[in-house]
Amino acid sequence: MNAVTETAAAEPVSGVEIFLPLAKLKKSPRNARKVPHGEAAIEALAASIQHKGLIQNLVVEPETEEDGTPTGYYLVTAGEGRRLAMLLRAKRKQIKKSEPVRCWLDTANDPAEVSLDENVTRTPMHPADQFERFAELSRDKGWGAQEIGARFGVSAGVVKQRLRLGAVSPKLLQVYREDGLTLDQLMAFAITEDHSRQEQVFEGLHHNREPWIIRRDMTASNVPATDRRAVFVGADAYVEAGGNIIRDLFSEDRGGFFEDAGLLDMLAVEKLREIAGEVEAEGWNWTEAHIDYPHAHGMRRFYPQSVPLSDEDEARLETLSTEHDELAEGYSSYDEMPEDVAAKLEAVSDEIDAISAKRQAYDANVIAHGGAFVVLHHDGSVRIERGFLRVEDEALADPQPEPEADAVATDPQAGEDEQTEDGDEDVREIEDEDEEPGKPISDSLTRDLSAYRTLALRVALGERPDMALIVLTHTLTAQLFYSYAEAGCLEVRPTVTPLGSHANGIEDTPLAARASEAREAWAERMPRDVADLWSFIVALDDEKRLALLAHCASRTVNALRLPWDRKPRTLQTADRLAGALALDVTKDWTPTVDSYLGRVTKAHIVEAVAEGVSEDAARRIADMKKPDMAQASLRRCRRVAAWGRGCESGPGLPLSRHRAGPAERDELPARRLSCAACSVSLLAATISPAGCAAFAVESRSTISPTSLSSRTIMFCTVAPPS
Question: I need a labelling partner for 394 at 20 to 30 A (CA). Which of 95, 359, 568, 584 fits?
């Protein structure tokens, strides 16, 4: 059939193809589609027409007046989206409004039926076919994401996603076509282009095929970009060394996953060794580089001592301080300053810090014989720990004064078993009248006199609480900070139990870093010689002295619950201490599959989900395998669960539990508090202070701390106050 170009004088016949000026086309009032096309759809059509022309013609009918007179315009029965796309191209000056448009003239059929037919009688392309065709365009024509996106009117990001899906194993794409996988599941497999790995994970899946489980299994042997090693090495250095980064285009991957853990470890250690070399250049005898801090090194540590600045440095520091204040005057932050002022102020601040650092220095003898560890902090920053001495170097770095030659060595244990028998009072040693003058008094007399002096000291100290605070602080500090010295006169022995063997990785957590920083802050202030410790403690004001005592006492806390160590009263006291401190472990500890959920029984997880979420949610996870159940329960309970050591009520001891409905749980405040409800510290509690009041009052009087169970999860989801 021949095409006809419409003119004003021509009277078209139905069933012919004609070319009409774009300006002569109008939207038909009988178009079945009442919801307009979206902007993205029009953009895609415009891009398609620009690169490939009008693949499908429009269907039109003449517009007439009420009396049947033609107006010279045509109504678009089918193809309104294409008409809008061409108008968009005209608006962008890509074509003129006089551009001829290929149309099919139809006056024989009902326009409303034609419009409906076009939108209903169609079979959309299966997404898998679309993904594969996009991949073919990239592979066969060499088009990148930008070029393909321009030709189809979609963003480059969308094209990348489709290309990644098109690169999924053909076996899995076929399963997707047959409805054996959902699109979300297919996207989870697309996190890597390794077909063998995709198929291996697919074959290992069971009835639970949630996308997060697939992603977890796909990246099980990879290192997330948030890992401290990845942060330290950096993506660029890792890729330059030949490593590959897997990126998830369909969810927030936070930088992807580093595929080669061995290469990442090697690069991290090499970079740490370079920094260790710079530290050794400071004069240290040795340095060691480790990813993890070697907590079991067993070495004694020395800290820098305060040293006075030179007159030159003092003068320079005063000048810089004045300059700093002048530059910063009138500004509250760097953002408000002109760039040149901000740069100058930053330089001045750096120089002030450099001079101030000279106030602390290590003893030259310690540097000459000691060393440092260079390790990775939990956040990927470098952690440099200086001042360690190996056992064989201690005497060289810190020589002790030799005992006087004429001093009489005495055994503190000697004479303890020398008891006089009843009625044998004459056996006491008595100095002979003819002994030489100046001879030292006997050991037994020394012992007797010192016993009386000790008794007098006890009585006197008991009447002076202020002095008791000083001597207790001195005794604890001497033993905790000076490993070689017995400098205290109180028989108080602090014991610090290492926790690393009880909880894997605990010593490299942010909480452990806080504890270490607190200890180092005090250690750096301590005098080098333990003989000067008494004067140091006496010189502290009451607030600082109490702070030092609190620090020393805190290091000896032991609330470990060990199956072979039965100490209910000790644990009861620890629970009361936690309640008195309003302990909130959730600030520094969050339950994970590895740290908690994967280590309790399936029955406890189901019970926890039933109580904290709903019975229906518990039923949905009841048949899962243990790892899948732990992951699913973590996601479901994260917002409402108070994970932690729970309470098991014994016979006749009812446990009041406040439950909140779904709407109430959604409104729970974000603030996390510690619940003193049952005289124990919950490891986490998302509750409101007012809402928990009644629960706390009732439970505190009915629950015995001895009923604690490490196997139970307790939910404390209390509705917020009105």
Answer: 359
Strand extents, DSSP E, 336-430: 360-361, 371-376, 382-389
Q: Residue 132, Cα to own-chain centre: how many angstroms? A: 38
Q: Which residue has 């050591």 as its token pair?
A: 645
Which residue, among 380, 393, 394, 357, has the nearest Cα to 282 in the 3D structure?
357
Name the nearest CA neighbour of 383 among 512, 197, 474, 498.
512
Nearest CA-CA partner of 263 in 230, 294, 288, 215: 230
Looking up tokens 């009138």 gives: 330
415: left (phi over 0), alpha (psi -120 to 50) or beta: left
**Gap between the Cα atoms of 382 and 390, Å rounded:** 23
Using CA atoms, how far apart are residues 522 and 547, in angstroms rounded to an integer? Answer: 10
What whole-number distance in Å separates Cα of residue 177 and Cα of residue 127? 8
Neighbours of 535 (CB within 10 A): 9
Q: How far apart are alpha carbons 636 and 707 in whole angstroms?
A: 28
What whole-number percentage of the chain has pLDDT above 70? 77
Ramachandran quadrant class, 673 (left: phi over 0; alpha: psi -120 to 50; beta: rest): beta
CA-closest candidate to residue 306, choices 366, 352, 363, 350 = 363
Predicted confidence at residue 706, as pLDDT, reads: 32
Q: Which residue has the tokens 């072979």?
A: 564
Tokens of 86: 């061409």
Task: Give one word for 438, left, alpha or beta, with left for phi > 0 and alpha for psi -120 to 50.
Answer: left
Q: Do the Cβ atoms of 446 and 408 come closer than 8 Å?
A: no
**Structural contact between residues 656 and 619, judged by C-beta atoms closer than 8 angstroms:** no
Q: Which residue has the tokens 């979609």?
A: 154
How far, in whole angstroms, is CA 196 from its chain's centroid?
32
**Other C-beta atoms lying within 10 Å of the C-beta of residue 591:** 21
Q: How confident is the model at residue 471 (pLDDT cuts 50, 70, 90)?
A: confident
* Residue 434: strand, helix, or coil: coil
Pairing of strands 70-78, 58-64: antiparallel
Residue type, 377: H
The answer for residues whose C-beta is within 8 angstroms of residue 608's C-beta and 6 or more apart is 633, 637, 641, 713, 715
Q: Tell me the CA end-to-end span of the chain in Å, nearest whole number.
A: 77
What digits encode the pLDDT tens for the residues 125-153? 788 887 888 888 888 888 888 888 777 77
Segment 492-521 shows an average pLDDT of 79
DSSP 646-702: EE---TT---------HHHHHT--S------TTSS--S-----TTTTHHHHHHHHHH
CA 496 to chain CA centroid, nearest Å: 28
Report the distance separating Cα 246 and Cα 220, nearest Å: 12
- The residues with which 258 forms a beta bridge, in sequence order, are 223, 245
Band the pLDDT of 251: cuts 50, 70, 90.
low
Tokens standing for 48?
């398609």
How far apart are the C-alpha atoms of 369 and 367, rounded to whole Å? 6
Q: Does residue 159 carry a pLDDT above 80?
A: yes
- Tell me what the mean pLDDT of segment 474-499 comes to: 78
592-628 confidence digits (pLDDT tens): 666 677 777 888 788 877 776 778 888 888 878 777 7
CA distance 35 to 117: 16
CB 59 within 8 A of CB 106: yes
Given a contact cutoff of 8 angstroms between Cβ atoms, the answer to whether 159 and 166 are in contact is: no
pLDDT at 83 over 90: yes
For the chain, how long is the longest CA-to-CA vector? Answer: 157
Q: Which of 222, 156, 218 is nearest to 188 (CA)?
A: 218
Instruction: Tell me the residue type at 489.
Output: C
Angle at 429 between CA 427 and CA 433, to 5 degrees: 120
CA distance 213 to 629: 11
pLDDT of residue 247: 80
